[in-house]
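Protein 1 of 2
SEQ + STRUCT:
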Amino acid sequence: MNYYHIVCTDQEPQSEPLSHAHIVAAGVDTDNDGYADKRHTLKQVIDNIDGKATRYFTIGNYSKERAYVEVVPCSVCHRRIIKTYPDDTRDNNLDKIRRCHWQ
């Protein structure tokens, strides 16, 4: 099984409501230096998770707890999105990690 550590995300807002945004890509750290060196599109992440050969995860900055990523329907628009499994730790949630800054 392949494991990818997501360290940042790209998000795009939807037209309605303005506060409703989705992750459209994830930055993964493949060399364990804490920085994204690969960009996986939302489609790649979903296809990899659906294929059951790949798992994505985040690690909390403070808690150091690992949270795995799952594919779920958006409660607002019902599109397939990714989110971290619910747990008692918030700093490892996908919506809490930094935004990617690609060069």
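Protein 2 of 2
SEQ + STRUCT:
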Amino acid sequence: MLPLVQLLIAIPHTRKAQVAMTAALTIAIALMLALMVTDAAWGASGAQAFQNGGTNVGNALMAWAKALLFSMGAIMGVGALIKRSVGEGVTILVIVLILGAFVYDQTDTENVIRNVWGALGG
């Protein structure tokens, strides 16, 4: 029997197993998407594209992050608003603000982190 089929048969049908399977499938899909992006970045024009592969992948991931950050934050915020959960709403707000700082203004965010770390570390 195939190893994948044996693995799927061996997984118990509990809620915990379903969550683990969903997480594994999500990671697998994310890995496949990342491989598709890197394939497009490296396949452009030979050696020059290979040298700029990291930059191309970074630019592609940055575009995805900018497109998805506020849309996912808005969807999750509407869910928190419907549930009238102030704690969840504030948590989503803080996460979106921190990620937005890294996505939209990396240099200033890096400087702020260095300054805070320098002040705390001495």
